[in-house]
Amino acid sequence: DAGVIQSPRHEVTEMGQEVTLRCKPISGHNSLFWYRQTMMRGLELLIYFNNNVPIDDSGMPEDRFSAKMPNASFSTLKIQPSEPRDSAVYFCASSLGTGNSPLHFGNGTRLTVT
Amino acid sequence: DQQVKQNSPSLSVQEGRISILNCDYTNSMFDYFLWYKKYPAEGPTFLISISSIKDKNEDGRFTVFLNKSAKHLSLHIVPSQPGDSAVYFCAATEFGNEKLTFGTGTRLTIIP
Asked: Which residues in B lie closer than 8 A to residue A41 (C-beta atoms)?
């Protein structure tokens, strides 16, 4: 398997623009997670889905952030409008969804908002 | 409120010696702990885990120790190799819960 695939790898945008990050989980994995990495806070869970249904979105910073999982092989994280403080590396991860099965992370999207 | 803390942002160790990475947690409900390793420009990869019914788990050169009363765990790497240079994240959760809480990471550098 190719692993978790994220696109784009890098995104540079101006404040106020809409940003869409994409993720393709590992086939057969039932859970999908969006994490954000910053120096100050490490890896923060934003939202996670199980069988395409959002289970916990308590980590989503504010209404500017939204995530969808229209089917088992695709998810998006959207920021509208983007702000400079959103600059971070965003990771998508997937797992089998059985108890404490390990998370498999993608290589991340580095977002820079100027 | 940082429930999982890695107080050492960085650590340098001579090749062949022991590397010890530390992690503290505050949430008493956490009973399952994991370590992930991250290379630059890549996502974290799972390394080793331990549940609270044990105080030690070993996998090759990697051993994780858990001290429940102190709410402290540590990762020992013996002997350290250049390929171990990476950022190490500690994570915690309740057993059966997929929602992981991560620390801020420790950058380990192995000096040849």
From this structure: 2, 104
